[in-house]
Amino acid sequence: MNTSRLATTFACALLLISCATKGKLQTPRLTIVAANMVSADVFSQQFLVRVHVQNPNARPLPIKKINYKLWLEGDSFAEGESTAAFVVPANGESEFDMGVNTNFMSSIGRLLAHLAGTSRREIQYNFEGSVVVDIGFSPKIKFAERGMVDLSKR
Question: What's the domain count of the chain?
Fold first, then answer.
């Protein structure tokens, strides 16, 4: 009886490992499309950041939330969590708007100093964090992207 129970437990463990390995998700690509200031005062600034998501997986990606840190021109700009759930189609793409609040007035000052005296509208960003998907037993999916964003885009 003990041998039978052990064999059943072992078989179930193998099945779970097989399912977990077979269903491993590839990291989606998250890029910043636009960043626009919505409002500002001395104590805080609100931005609307447009994010493009590419899903390299052969299954839809139901995103529950995104934990993120965002740097602009090498300076820490914002960090937080986007909890607006959405689904990215299998091997597809989607875009969403993420409200970002920051009280880093000095970061904005440094960003403006980088752009002062130039007609440059593109700035470098680093965007990293983790994606939480609504698929049972799936771990957070870490991402890290860098690129350029045009501040004149809406």
Answer: 1
